[in-house]
Amino acid sequence: MPRRPYTLSPARAAALRPLLDALDAALDRRARLAADPVELPRRYADPGDAEVAALFAASLAYGRADVFKPVVERVLAAMGPSPAAFVREFARSPEPSFFAGAIYRFNRPPDLAALAAAAGDVRARHGSLGARFAELLRACGGDGALRSALARFARELRDAPQVAPLLAGRGTRGLLHLLPDAAGPGASKRWNLYLRWMVRGPDGVDLGLWREVPPAALVVPLDTHVHRVARVLGLTARPDASWRTAEEITASLRRIDPDDPVRYDFALCHLGMSGACPVRREARRCDACVLAEGCLSAARAARPRPAARTEARRTGSARARTS
Fold first, then answer.
1. Neighbours of 22 (CB within 10 A)
2. Measured over all CA atoms, what is the biggest interatomic distance in the chain, rounded to whole angstroms?
3. What is the reported pLDDT for 64?
4. Measured between alpha carbons, how far is 316 from 310 in angstroms, rounded to an integer?
5. Closest CA to 201 of 87, 69, 41
6. How many CB atoms lie within 10 A of CB 224?
7. Residue 3 Ramachandran class (φ > 0 left, ψ -120 to 50 alpha, else beta)
8. What is this structure's pTM?
9. What are phi and psi of 140, to 5 degrees?
10. Nearest residue to 208 via CA among 76, 68, 83, 54
11. Which 3 state secondary structure label does DSSP give 107?
12. Which residue, 291, 303, 282, 290, is CA-closest to 232?
């Protein structure tokens, strides 16, 4: 029997909004940006440079930020002052070993070369990555349009004519990891992160460069931190980090802010990433949290334990008999 989609009640949404607003207002953005990959594309004033830099930063944003960010910085430094100009020229004369030494877990220099050439090819044919994605989103339309557009966008990049020669002998697995298929069961966290950066804002975190894509269409970039915090806030009860879970959390957030459902993503992610929301409840931290009134974990901790309830009933009965 299919599971009914979870729906956040209007009353719950109304109760959570001021708490999430307080969390967002209290966030030290400067400190948290230093621990976030969005810091890297924010260094570029030109929108073309920023969208290319962001594609690399988001594609490599798996694992620990303090480990992958230096790799992204090395790649961007190799591109020179204008990543957009670099990928345009690189697509004309690609070199598989150009990023020699830039190795991160599953990915090797030929994967990065293929990504650079693919980005240059799409920009050459459509003017910008944002213009092409907006075109695909309009073409997909209807329910699931964002996911379908992302799947087609990723496929176009992976199928760029320069890619196969660059990956000869290497295989396509590394590029598929950098540019995953959004039509699969996974949450496509890095794709949704890239879209959040490009579409929302500008607001001191996100860049707001792709104006043709409405923020209301976005899906939350679901990582382990956002998933855990979303569960304790009652935004979802789903235990799996899947696209369906990301959609369910987004639907709950849309009840709170219909026009900009992922506006709280940065604050929620860094609440978990920073350790301010611990994996196991810690009274000192949890009781001081601005979300404490809406936290289901805090509510459970406040309930009397079964033994305490039994003792309370027994004490109450004894008092009744003696009165």
1. 14
2. 94
3. 92
4. 10
5. 41
6. 13
7. beta
8. 0.91
9. -75, -50
10. 54
11. strand
12. 291
Q: How far apart are CA 229 and CA 290, in angstroms?
A: 13
Integer Cα distance of 210 and 131 in angstroms: 8
| Tokens 């190795």 belong to residue | 103
> Residues of the chain whose pLDDT is less than 50?
1, 322-323
Element (H, E) at 293: none
Token pair for residue 302?
Answer: 């406040």
- Indicate the angle between helix axes 10-26 and 243-256, nearest 10 degrees: 90
Token representation of residue 227: 């998933």
Eight-class DSSP state of 292: G
Structure confidence by residue, pLDDT tens digits, 122-150: 999 999 999 999 999 999 998 899 999 99
* DSSP H helical ranges for the chain: 10-26, 29-33, 47-59, 65-79, 83-92, 109-126, 129-140, 145-158, 163-166, 173-178, 189-199, 224-232, 243-256, 265-273, 283-288, 296-302, 306-322
Neighbouring C-beta atoms of residue 128, cutoff 10 Å: 17
Q: Please give the backbone phi and psi of residue 317, each rounded to the nearest 5 degrees, phi first.
A: -65, -40
Give pLDDT, residue 163: 98
Residue 1 has what pLDDT? 46
